[in-house]
Amino acid sequence: MMIQFGLIGYPLSHSFSKEYFASKFQQEHISGYDYELFPLEKIEDLPSLLSRHPELAGLNVTIPHKINVLPYLQHLDETANAIGAVNTIKISRADAVPNENPAAGSVGNPVLSGYNTDAYGFQKSLEPLLQPWHKKALILGTGGASRAVLYVLEKLGITPLFVSRSPARDTSPGHTEQIAYSQLDAATVQEYPLIINTTPLGTYPDTDNCPAIPYESFSERNLLYDLVYNPAETLFLKKGKERGATIINGLEMLRLQAEKAWKIWTT
């Protein structure tokens, strides 16, 4: 029986992961493994998916389940716990927990361990581009992906500022400040020269869209990082490039996080 890995999320119209692992298996002559897409609109359907596919040994997790998958996991590694979001799950059936319902049979429920390899991929791809003046960063968006970005920035000593359509007004200790897109101006863009887009804006086929920020204020001191990888140059990156900014898309981050996930699944 083939050992299977896969991706859960919704929708899954285009997947880097499936293409990446298919190519990896072929190029590295790896046999006995398969990687499939599992569109999962509701996270409540995860137990049923695992029951239908007993060969599953690991999953990648994408929008919108990076956070709402947490209650279904039995273990969280230190990084995933600190971030509060998971993009990789290792499935162990050797340590299966007995089913509470005898009618379900004797196989038991698999043990799910959650990891976050987004943080690893983001950090390793960002570090070579950082300049001494990149001490502050704007994080566009507040979804699951933004949590890994925040974790890395704080780890690197870079002061973060979230930009959101609906900024939170929480002023409790340890809370990261949030502002609205309408509050961004030239001074803010200059003060926070590293700008990371964690929203899906600009993703194919919606390539004519981009975050509403003052692009005319960019300069060569700005570093723009777009977690979107399709297209390779989003409108967000194109507008930054026109002003002399350094740009990078999310492809290298995805490659790095995929390799980290593979290591977790197979060791």
Provide key terms for this protein.
267 residues; six-stranded mixed beta sheet; 8 helices
Structure commentary:
- With 267 residues, the chain is of the alpha/beta class.
- Helices cover 28% and strands 24% of the residues.
- The protein is built from eight helices and twelve strands.
- The longest helix is centred in the C-terminal third of the chain and has 16 residues, at 251-266.
- Residues 101-106 have low confidence and may be disordered.
DSSP strand count? 12
Number of helices: 8
Mean pLDDT over the full residue set: 92
Spatial strand order of the main sheet: 2-1-3-5-6-4
Succession of helices and strands: EHEHEEHEEHEHEEHEEHEH
Shape type: elongated
Radius of gyration: 20 Å
Distance between the termini: 19 Å
Structural class assignment: alpha/beta
Biggest sheet overview? 6 strands, mixed
Strand content: 15-25%
Proportion of residues in helical segments:
25-40%
Low-confidence stretches: 101-106
